[in-house]
Amino acid sequence: MAAELERMKELIERLNKASRAYYQEDREEISNLEYDRLYEELENLERQTGVTLAGSPTASVGYEALDELPKEAHESPMLSLDKTKDIETLRSFIGEHKALLSWKLDGLTIVLTYEGGELIKAVTRGNGLVGEVITNNARVFANIPLKIPYAGRLALRGEAVITYRDFEKINEQMGEADAKYKNPRNLCSGSVRQLNNEITAKRNVRFYGFALVSAADVDFQNSHEKELEFLNEQGFQTVEYRAVTAETLDAAMEYFSQQVVKNQVPSDGLVAIYDNISYGESLGATSKFPRNAFAFKWADEVQETTLEEIEWSPSRTGLINPVAIFAPVELEGTTVSRASVHNISIMEELKLGIGDRIQVYKANMIIPQIAENLTKSGRLPIPKECPACHGEARVEQEKDVKVLRCVNPQCPAKKIKAFTLFVSRDALNIEGLSEATLEKFIGRGFLQDFADLFFLGQHRDEIVEMEGFGQKSYDNLMENLEKARTTTLPKALYGLGIPGIGLANAKLICRHFDQDMAQIMEASEEEVSGIDGIGPALAKNLAAYFSDEGNKDLWRRLKGQLHIEAVAEATGTELEGKTFVITGSLERFANRKELKELIESKGGKVTSSVTGKTAYLINNNAASNSSKNKKARELGVPVISEEEFLTLLNA
User: Fold this and answer.
1) CATH architecture of the domain with residue range 412-484
2) What's the predicted TM-score (pTM) here?
3) In CATH, 579-650 is 3.90.226.10
4) Does domain 303-405 have CATH number 3.40.50.300?
5) Among this protein's residues, is 602 annotated catalytic?
6) Which pLDDT tens digit goes with each residue over 150-179?
7) Residue of 104, 147, 414, 415 marked catalytic
């Protein structure tokens, strides 16, 4: 079974890569014959194993946006685990019993429920008593099986995580520093709890099962290890573990301690659970912890140092974030001298003061943090003015925390961050304008608002004399600015930096309002929140932004310098509500991309696999035995040629 599942994963990756190349990049990685052969092999393996993995081209998972995540009580409370940093305490817990020692993954705990082999429900841990229903999002996790061979009711617990590699990649793609996530756990939590599961799908969330809750009429021989083996056979990836006793614990601990620094999957310790199910259950639980399992937390490398200063770092949104600067220390093999304190509430809780002796560590061996303040002098004044503009800085309450905010709308720090977003790749994409260069231009008074970028030529003599510039750099900048004048409305809207409005949201908004900024500026909060994929918080931000006459004027000045290209939208509704799949060679169209664009322009949709929702399969060879033709015949989907498609379109 393990070999079959591995082969299925290989086939899914290969087929999806070929589909992306074919439909999105207009190139063929493999021939249609080879694609069909691999597709058929995958179908056979899915029938043979009874498993359909997430992402399989044989399964179609639609995207759906919700207004809110419903709440649901757990059948039994999900208690947290008692923990220790002492290996001897862990050895004492194991005693004379066999235990399973596994990673304590650092993500979001999820309960999955299957019936009749199908995933029917996914619920977050929440507060242990009540969680949020995220079934829609779980269906697009990277590795959850959508179908399993076991036909009874099955429930399991596991951890949703995002790897360090994906965390870094996603953060790199975020245009503004304020939007970057602090760690993989925060990113995972936000990704799993999205109202639009199309966003979840892009985050590459993975799920690792760690406990079977129930599966009727299966004999697990009273063994947790047998339960994990059963879950593996159903197509789940389970947490890595080692079977241990008190005598073999040291060797297993040595393995995990060496592995933790190499792991791509975030973890913050280990978990030991008795393999003997009935023995563990007989121990019961305290009011807080079950007695059948125990957590081991790594003893972080902690160094003592002296707090030398607090650097107050302004951001694009006006938040002024405290950053602790301390005498350099070695932690986990690197020298560190600064750590974010995040907000005023944390700073006050730590009772920080200049000269205090503090203990610092790296959370998950990566992110520098203050563990404890040994002195607790509390002698740290909160600035009353912004370090960038010397305007008023005010302490405000945001939800449950105190933050420091600059209230000056003309603060240069806000401007620098705002301009950095505006010139970024997903916005106006103006090359040659780094944050450092923007800071120089703003400091010299060249830039007051975004429209001023297109008047930088008025300052030619000063720019060519600036350090790091010259005639060639100036000429390149002018050329790039000229290119940037031609853009699309979604890119321009995103570039304005409205809180929470990313490029994907900007596209949804512009499409809804027919690419008309005048409509967008006058839209009510209620109207915007009615757009699929746009929640009430984003609607409030958009409406609030354009309720400010100054922001409307900013757009009018900017619009005068731009050439807004029309975005290709549907030009008709002839194919509205119809889903097509294209396969085989084409004669009337240059390539599949051209045909796909025509279908979409008429309100239709093109997908890569044939499902019950497919209206037509376009294939000039209707008699072929390709996997798509077979699937279409099984589902009663008509197979039509290009000529028949054009007849349908013109009917």
Assistant:
1) Orthogonal Bundle (1.10)
2) 0.52
3) no
4) no
5) no
6) 999 999 999 999 998 888 887 766 544 345
7) 104
